[in-house]
Amino acid sequence: MNKKRLVVLTGAGMSAESGFKTFRDAGGLWENYNVEDVASIEGWYRNPELVTEFYNDLREQLEKAQPNEGHKILAELEKYFDVKIITQNVENLHERAGSSSVLHLHGELTKVCSVNDTSKNFDIGYRRVKYGEKNSDGELLRPFIVWFGEAVPLIGKAAELVRSADIFVVVGSSLVVYPAAGLIHDMRGSTQGYLIDPQEVSIPRGVNFKIIRDVASSGLAKLRDELLKDLN
Ligand code: OAD
User: Among 12, 142, 163, 175, which is least packed, fewest CB within 10 Å?
Assistant: First the structure.
């Protein structure tokens, strides 16, 4: 029998229980940093050393972090569903938990790319980089992150995935950053929608989600139980 397609859009809340700060919650990353300085293309041109160090620090933090129970549940659900993950997160905790299909909308912390062409990107693992490093073509390298003010090259592919979903789940995203937030409008009418978040997330009228008001680990455990009950 064909497995149903389960598409999951994750945001920073997915990794909060792995010790990663979210962006907009109290105590979140954007309380300590100016988003314009470290997550915009203008910020990069103003002070590339500062931006390089910011992502070096996050990369170092990532090496020590572990996937949480929520990441593991999503990987385990591949036994029963055709799971496709779309993440706004730049860390690799979904992959490390065992998920086999992960689309990174906002780039990847363990990669760098050419400043001239972000499609020329490659893995650097967890090492710190120095501003001024170049690729083999002599082009200056930068973190492989999609910053504010830049196009999101994988958004079309992500929208296609959402349109193909039998079940669509949003976990741990405030849904305020576009174009990612707009993906909820690509959900078909027949798709079962779920939203897992401990806080209230504002959802436009006409978008039907069953709300699970919980953190990622226990919220996804509830979802798993409900989905598996429906399978039997
Ligand atoms: P936000 O920080 O805006 O939202 C995090 C969401 O996670 C909020 O709705 C929280 O209530 C929820 N949350 C907190 N703890 C949680 C937990 N333990 N389990 C589940 N949910 C929890 O993060 P994003 O929506 O991911 O972009 O932000 C989107 C983009 O904005 C990011 O990808 C980043 C940022 O600027 C770039 O850096 C380009």
Answer: 163
Q: What residues contact 116, with CB distance under 8 A and at least 6 apart?
A: 139, 140
Q: How far apart are CA 20 and CA 156, in angstroms?
A: 28
- Residues carrying an active site annotation: 106
CA 229 – CA 220 distance, rounded (Å): 14
Q: What is the DSSP letter of 22?
A: -
Whole-angstrom Cα distance, residue 81 to residue 92?
21
pTM higher than 0.70, yes or no? Answer: yes
For residue 42, give the 3-state DSSP assignment: helix
Give the contacts of 2 (CB within 8 A, at least 6 positions apart): 82
Q: Which residue has the tokens 């973190």?
A: 143
pLDDT-based confidence at residue 49 (cuts at 50, 70, 90): very high
Residue 97 amino acid letter: A
Q: How far is the CA of 78 from the centre of ligand 1 (A)?
A: 24
